[in-house]
Design brief:
The chain has 14 helices and 17 strands. Strand 2 and strand 3 form a beta hairpin. Strands 6-5-4-1-7 form a five-stranded mixed sheet. Strands 9-10-12 form a three-stranded antiparallel sheet. It is globular. About 40% of the residues are buried. Helices cover about 35% and strands about 15% of the residues. By secondary structure, the chain is α+β, with helices and mostly antiparallel strands.
Length: about 475
């Protein structure tokens, strides 16, 4: 049975002439907001030109993608494909199923955006089509509106198949070279992208303030990690578009589980809680921040020792950041500190210098992940780029990435003294490469232990929570 012929319990009847005449008449026009060219339009045009020049003589097809089904006929919140977003700048307003075509057969790239137009009131789609009907999704911009906003010629999606038949040099995202080029183009952020990332980070900072305020409540009820998770989500959704990724709210021993997203654990006084979270704005750029906060506002002796180790590793990484160094140098600076400190604590059977040798790596038991990843439209941005451009690549002004060393002593790790077991610490900031060094874009969020303890007291002053 085809999808179209499958039965449905969603009523889209009646379709009688009498009903159609009634439902399509006597509608006043609603005056919408003034439509103007978006700031991103000129930046996106430069990106399309760069890709066109890299693949001359082609028709490059980039799909926004369809909504993803969550359950039966209920979809997840829509997020278009990253490459499509970077090339159009459309962001959260993207009409699902849209297609961008970049024609590079001439010196100046010519682009066309194909999409499903608004359903007219003289068609049954106006009330019966849940994808584009105004009764279902509300008023939508016209093709002309979108063309003006994005500076890209628009056409009805129904014309796409016919137009495609005329092309004989088609390239799409399945082509590995194109995928690599699109990903690599995002390494250096333009002025618009940096501004959007700063916006996402600012919202994330506000979300972390709500996280701190939520800790007393979280410690008083079961599954307190979800109290913390939703405190952040409320801010991200109110002030931004969505989360950039699923929030990690990992209290106690859960902080040692790198991708803990169940968030169903209790938040206990005396533990620290590791919160890794980022807000995504309407342009779809995201932040990615981690702070490890004492649930009662004060670090224990063991927690403080571990925190200071991670802070020293992060600061060492910051010190080396400048244009011209290798991306991997950031990790090497941080991990050298981790190796030195776990050796001092007597956790590894060799010296720090020996541990850092490629055949040893004993210290990685306590920090198995890397120190940095690029950040942008994807939380792990530029992921399809080749290693020689990423890990072995050279830093350039305008790159944005994380610095996020950690130290994790699992509760069942017998190499660790008992009083340290079950403690996980990570500090993560978002970093912009400048002409001479770097800027910590998330510096407004307290990161030193004394700062965090003071922040806790300030946020809870007056009995909040």
């Amino acid at each position: 049975m085809s999808k179209k012929s499958q039965p449905t319990n969603r009523s889209r009847t009646p379709h009688s002439d009498k009903f159609m005449k009634f439902i399509s008449s006597q509608w006043a026009e609603i005056e919408g907001p003034t439509v103007s060219r978006w700031e991103v339009a000129d930046f996106a045009a430069k990106r399309r030109q760069a890709i066109a020049e890299a693949f001359p003589g082609k028709q490059i097809i980039l799909d926004a993608g369809a909504p993803k089904v969550r359950s039966n006929d209920t979809d997840y919140r829509y997020r278009p494909d990253t490459a499509f977003t970077h090339m159009t700048g459309w962001g959260s307003a993207t009409v699902p199923g849209a297609v961008l075509v970049i024609d590079s057969t001439s010196a100046k790239a010519e682009s066309t955006l194909y999409l499903l137009p608004t359903a007219g009131k003289n068609t049954d789609e106006f009330f019966a089509n849940p994808a584009i009907g105004e009764f279902w999704v509300g008023p939508r911009p016209t093709l002309e509106d979108i063309e003006k906003q994005l500076g890209i010629k628009t056409k009805d999606i129904k014309d796409f198949k016919a137009d495609k038949k005329k092309w004989n040099a088609i390239l799409d995202i399945k082509d590995e070279e194109l995928s690599v080029a699109l990903s690599s183009l995002r390494f250096v952020k333009d002025e618009f992208e940096i501004k959007e990332l700063k916006k996402a980070i600012d919202i994330t900072a506000k979300g972390f303030s709500e996280v701190v305020k939520s800790l007393p409540k979280a410690s008083r009820q079961q599954r307190g990690e979800r109290v913390v998770e939703t405190a952040f989500y409320s801010t991200a959704r109110q002030l931004g578009y969505e989360l950039g990724y699923e929030t990690i709210a990992a209290s106690g021993a859960h902080a040692c589980i790198l991708h803990w997203t169940k968030n169903d654990g209790d938040v206990k006084t005396g533990d620290v809680i590791l919160v890794d979270a980022g807000a995504e704005v309407d342009s779809l750029y995201t932040a990615d921040i981690t702070r490890t906060i004492p649930v009662n506002g004060t670090y224990s002796k063991e927690q403080l020792w571990m925190y200071n180790v991670v802070l020293e590793a992060a600061d060492a990484a910051f010190k080396v950041v400048k244009p011209g160094i290798k991306f991997r140098d950031i990790h090497n600076a941080a991990i050298s500190v981790i190796a030195e400190k776990v050796a001092e604590l007597g956790l590894i059977p060799v010296s720090a210098e020996e541990a850092l040798e490629s055949d040893n790596q004993h210290h990685r038991r306590y920090m198995v992940h890397g120190t940095s990843h690029h950040l942008g439209l994807d939380v792990h941005d530029c992921a399809q780029a080749r290693r020689e451009m990423y890990q072995d690549g050279t830093l350039a002004e305008g790159m944005v990435f994380t610095i996020e060393p950690g130290l994790y002593f699992h509760q069942n790790d017998l190499t660790v003294p008992e009083n340290y077991r079950g403690i996980g610490i990570r500090i993560e900031d978002n970093v912009l490469v400048t002409k001479t060094g770097s800027e910590n874009l998330s510096a407004m969020i307290p990161r030193g232990p004394k700062e965090i303890e003071a922040w806790y007291e300030e946020e809870l002053l007056g009995g909040a929570g």
